[in-house]
Amino acid sequence: MQSRHVSLNGQPFHYRAWGPEGAPILLMLHGFPEYSGAWAELATRLSDRFRCIAPDQRGYGQSSAPPAVADYATGKLVGDMVALIDHLGGGPVTVLGHDWGASVAYVLAARDPERVERLIILNGVHPIPFQREMAKGGAQSEASQYILWLRRDGSEDRLAANGFARLMDLFSAKMDLSWMTPDRLEDYKTEWARPGRMRGMVNWYRASPLQVAAPGQPITDLPALPRDALRVQQPHLLIWGTGDTALLTDCLDGLEDLAPDLTIHRITGADHWICHQKPDKVAALIRDWLG
Questions:
Q1: Structural domain boundaries of the chain?
Q2: CA 194, 196, 200, 201 torsion: positive or negative?
Q3: What is the pTM for the complete model shown?
Q4: Alpha carbon distance 229, 168 (integer Å)
Q5: What is the per-residue pLDDT across 238-253, written as a single tens digit (0 to 9) for each?
Q6: Which residues pair with 239 in a beta bridge?
C-alpha cells in the first residue's frame, strides 16, 4: 500500500493506492464513518489486476476538512473526485462506492460519464429512490431518523464524547461489527480524532438536500429531483447485503429505470458492512462482472 498526498481544487487530499502503476483504476469511495483504510480488505484482493485508489473524502482522515456546511454540497464532493480522476490521468475509471460514497459515485457517473467507465455500488442508494422512500413516512423514514439527529448543532461533540461511544453505538446499531478488531478500532479512532474531522463528517448530512419524514407523516410536497440528470448509462453492478437495517431494500425499487444496464447480486448473511463481512465473495463478484 502506498500513501499519497496531493492538492485537489486548491485543498490538500490524501489517498491510498494498491496495485501496479498503469493497471486499470478502481476508484473506491468510502462512506460514514469510515476512511480510505476501510477498503484494505477488498483492495488487497483486487490489486493484482487493478490500481485500487481509495481517497479520504472531504472531511475525513488526512484530507481537507473545511468547517462550513456549504463546503459539503454534492457538487463540491463530486468535484473533488473529478479532480482526483484528472490527477490520475483523466479516466475513464471504474468507480466503486459504499454508503455516502455511493451517493458521490452515482452523481459522478451521471454528470461526468466520460470519466466513469463502469459503476459498482455496495449497499448504497441512488438519491432518487432513497428520497422517495425517506419521504413516505414508512420503514425507511423510521430507519433514517438518525439523520435528523446528526444534523443537529453539536452532534459531532456528542459523537466524540467518551471515546466516541455514541459514534460506535451508531456504527454498530442492529448490525454485525464482529470484524472490528481492537487494532482496527484504534485506527478508526485515530482518523476520527483529527482536528475538525468529526464536524466535517457530520456536515455531509447537514449539507444534503434530502428530506426525512417523521414516521407516519409523509412529505407530499417534495421538489422533483432531475431524473434525466441523474440517469446512469454505464454498466452498473449493485452488490447488496440483505441484512442492512440502515438502507432498506425498498430503495432498490425502480433503480433499473435510472440505470438500465443494471446487475444486482444479493448476499445473505451480510448487512451494511458487507465489504468487511464478505470480502472474498464481494471481490469474486467484482472480478466476474468486470470480466
A1: 2-290
A2: positive
A3: 0.97
A4: 36
A5: 999 999 999 999 999 9
A6: 122, 265
